[in-house]
From TrEMBL:
Protein name, as recorded: Alkanal monooxygenase
Organism of this sequence: Zafaria cholistanensis
Pfam families xrefs: Bac_luciferase (PF00296)
Positions of the Luciferase-like domain: 9-261
Keyword Oxidoreductase: yes
Gene3D superfamilies in alphabetical order: Luciferase-like domain (3.20.20.30)
Keywords assigned by UniProt, alphabetized: Monooxygenase, Oxidoreductase
InterPro entries recorded: Bact_Lucif_Oxidored, Luciferase-like_dom, Luciferase-like_sf
């Protein structure tokens, strides 16, 4: 295990027991938590993106703000739904956020997940081309983004521009060199993991995937990672790829921990349907004393196969408690699993 970060879904609820009562609360606390996580020595601050929901939606202002407040921690997404994205505008936003952070952006993208509304991407002005599915459209947007991030010019310059142009075709600006190699694909199946490897993207694997064998979740996920690495090697890419997995892990070190997550000590995988066609396996949560967690996590084959672990955090419990959650893992559990 090389890196440990956190992943926040950014929920807010106008409820007396929620520490994030508004969008402002969720966003500002995300910045504070990233700063606190960097001070603890964590390696990454990642944020989920959902549209039409009381959660983070437009990630780049948040990522840029965190980039300006921190100096070392990786900042990223897990994941952005590419069905909703204009690839060129996204490249501009991502380039700006990456430059502000000094090249620390780790951009997780994907086809997306079940939505709050029907075909929400249509409200954003996007429709699949004839013969395409919405997943095909997401992959088409992705390939265009990857092309743009190479920095190659493609737009014919105006012969009478407002400002002088450099010679040749123009690219979108600002351009951030190296960002193309820090794009991750959030994969829910073996086939899309192989596709991500072929395209030269890093791999993000979450707490659920298509149930393709009936084996335990962590075993299926480890097999997915193995197929990804094999496809990467066969594609002939020169650099070493990165792989992250997400987990809900809570060290029970004080009364609050037992109150909130003590029941997860006996958690197990669950199987269900995320849509009418897709049977999925949902990974278990981990909770226990630090020694119990070390023993449990040592048997997780996917964590062993990945180089990055993202801890999902309960953001509605506030910055102070989530800082404690991260600190407990970094202090009492991670060193015994080979971190640092």
């Amino acid at each position: 295990m090389k890196k440990i970060g956190f992943l926040s879904f950014g929920h807010w609820t106008d409820h007396p027991q929620s520490a994030t009562r508004s969008a402002s609360d969720a966003l500002l606390q995300a910045i504070d938590l990233a700063v606190a996580a960097e001070e603890l020595g964590a390696d990454g601050a990642y944020f989920r993106v959902h549209h039409f929901a009381q959660q983070y939606a437009s990630p780049f202002p948040l990522l840029a703000a965190i980039g300006a407040r921190t100096s070392r921690i990786e900042i990223g997404t897990g994941v952005i739904d590419m069905r909703y994205e204009n690839p060129l505008y996204m490249a501009e936003d991502a380039g700006a956020a990456d430059l502000i952070s000094g090249g620390r952006l780790q951009l997780g993208i994907s086809r997306g997940s079940p939505e709050q509304v029907i075909d929400g991407w249509r409200h954003f002005g996007f429709s699949p081309a004839e013969g395409e599915s919405d997943a095909d459209m997401a992959r088409r947007h992705t390939l265009r983004l990857l092309e743009v991030l190479t920095g190659e010019g493609f737009a014919q310059p105006n012969p009478r521009p407002m400002f002088p142009n450099p010679p040749g075709l123009l690219r979108v600006e600002p351009y951030s060199e190296g960002l193309r190699e820090r794009i991750w694909w959030g994969s829910g199946s073996n086939a899309t993991a192989v596709w991500a490897a072929q395209q030269g993207m890093n791999l993000q694997s979450s707490t659920l995937k298509d149930d393709e064998s009936g084996k335990p979740f962590h075993v299926q996920q480890a097999e997915q990672i193995q197929l990804y690495r094999q496809a990467w090697k066969e594609a002939g890419h020169e650099r070493e790829p990165r792989v992250s997995v997400s987990r809900s892990i809570f060290a029970l070190t004080e009364e609050r921990d037992w109150k909130y997550f003590g029941h997860d000590r006996f958690s197990s995988d669950q199987v269900g349907h995320i849509d009418a066609k897709t049977r999925a396996v949902f990974g278990r949560s981990y909770a226990g004393t630090p020694d119990e967690l070390v023993a449990k996590l040592a048997g997780d084959e996917a964590i062993a196969a990945a180089d990055t672990l993202l801890l999902t955090v309960p953001n509605q419990l506030g910055v102070e408690y989530n800082t404690h959650v991260i600190d407990a893992i970094l202090t009492h559990v991670a060193p015994q699993l080979g971190w640092r």
